Amino acid sequence: MAKNVAIVGVTGAVGQEMLNCLEKRNFPVGELRVMASSRSAGKTVTFKGKELTIIEATTSAFEGIDIALMAVESDQSKEFSPAAAKAGAVVVDNSSAYRMDPECPLVVPEVNPEAIKNRPKGIIANPNCSTIIMNVPVWPLHKVNPVKRIVVSTYQAASGAGKPAMDELAETTRAWVEGKPIEPKVFPYQLAMNLFSHNSPIGDNGYNQEEMKMINETRKIFCAPEIQVTATCVRVPVMRAHCESVNLQFSKPISEDEVRAILSKAPGVKMIDDRKTNRSPQPKDATDNDEVFVGRIRKDLSQPDGCGIEMFISGDQILKGAALNAVQIAELL
Q: Could you say which of 21, 104, 142, 242 is catalytic?
């Protein structure tokens, strides 16, 4: 049955990918209403060979919409999402505005699809990109042998900060090659040929917001408030697709072969793990691909009880980390 769909923020990197995902996955769209700021109103985007005119996003623009995909910042989502829900739409929100709201499910379709049923506010939250990419391969392992502790370090691409950040990385890389001065504007520091701690604010506990998102969201998605999670999030000079080094402590001993067997059948996971050629997931593997790539699976030698596993993963932040996950939620609806 066809659904009337709205994309709010269609001109951004995530909004553009939402549009592409709806088309590639042949989502049953009736009317597609594309929205953005007043600056973009009147411009056009193409969907299935037809030009659609962008309208200005307003709180009164959601009448007749069944599913509203939000690809905007938190403050804008707080304005538009309740209005869309009040008009009768189910909202899938990509911002952080409602992720920790107890009345809004936080959903990764490969992990907790049943959570979409309980949505008293009519809003379903899309998790943080790094959280999604980590949870897709960790969850199938957790189901078999509960994970007690996760230690994760991220290597996050410019795409996580949107198209302006991607443009800045390209421009500053050219400037570096040509020996010109580099003046970052989107990021606080030069990203070209450099890396730095994730540029979200640091709290009193010393963790930045991105790290706390991974901690708190994983506990909510897994329905496991007791799981121990610690994260270090870093920006790296990669255009698109995040990587993560993940260390897991399981409740019981687990072998590398068991992990490989579980992940080889896990939805949304693809293995690249060749020790002979030292081949493991890279951002270029994940870019423009739906799956989360997993490799470097090995025992954690610092856990002699056999309960520790290390792995390295990569996933497209704009796709599975954002737009694709939202469209998969829409498919569940």
A: 242
Question: What angle, 0 to 180 degrees and rounded to 10, lies between the N-to-C axes of helices 13-24 and 324-332?
Answer: 50
With a CB cutoff of 8 Å and minimum separation 6, the contacts of 319 are 17, 21, 288, 289, 290
Domains of the chain from N-terminus onward: 3-127+322-332 (3.40.50.720), 131-317 (3.30.360.10)
Q: Which of 21, 104, 129, 243 is catalytic?
A: 129
pTM greater than 0.90? yes
Identify the bridge partners of residue 72 per DSSP, sorted by sequence position.
none
Q: CA 91 to CA 5: how far, in whole Å? A: 10
List, for residues 203-238, the tens digit of each pLDDT value: 999 999 999 999 999 999 999 999 999 999 999 999
What is the distance in angstroms between the CA of the first residue and the CA of the last residue of the chain?
A: 11
DSSP annotation of 327 = H
Active site includes 129? yes
Contact 210/128 with Cβ under 8 angstroms?
A: yes
